[in-house]
Design goal:
mainly alpha, Trp Operon Repressor, Chain A
């Protein structure tokens, strides 16, 4: 029997329960405990790395510099950059990055329609 069992996509209700659970956590210790219970160490580390990549992109670090500082691949950096430009605005809200005409408390749809900070292009160093 294969260990690669396919997982059905989460329902809208299940996703809403997850979002509400995260929103109801009071502090970083509660969030850490929840993530420790819910995710593998690797998953939490990968999320942490992506957040650091987003932070570095938002201050216009080069891809080469970001790779050196975080160990992230160019593919990961490009995916995060795409989310900063075209995503729902989650990175921008978490990082407190202000976008033209909005504040960090803007709705995801308004943040996504605004222009995000321009990440540096891949470096040829």
């Amino acid at each position: 029997m294969s260990n690669n069992k396919s997982v059905r996509p989460a329902t809208k209700t299940e996703l809403e329960r997850l979002y509400t659970a995260l929103a109801n956590l009071d502090d970083s210790l509660d969030v850490a405990a929840f993530l420790e219970d819910m995710c593998t160490i690797r998953e939490v580390e990968e999320m942490s790395q992506r957040l650091e990549v987003a932070r570095l992109l938002s201050i216009h670090e080069s891809y080469t510099s970001i790779t050196e500082k975080t160990g992230a691949s160019a593919t990961t950096i490009a995916r995060v950059a795409k989310s900063l430009h075209y995503g729902a605005g989650g990175y921008l809200r978490v990082l407190g990055v202000q976008v033209q005409g909005t504040s960090s408390s803007a709705s995801p749809s308004s943040a996504a329609s605004s222009s995000a900070p321009s990440p540096s292009a891949p470096s040829s160093q």
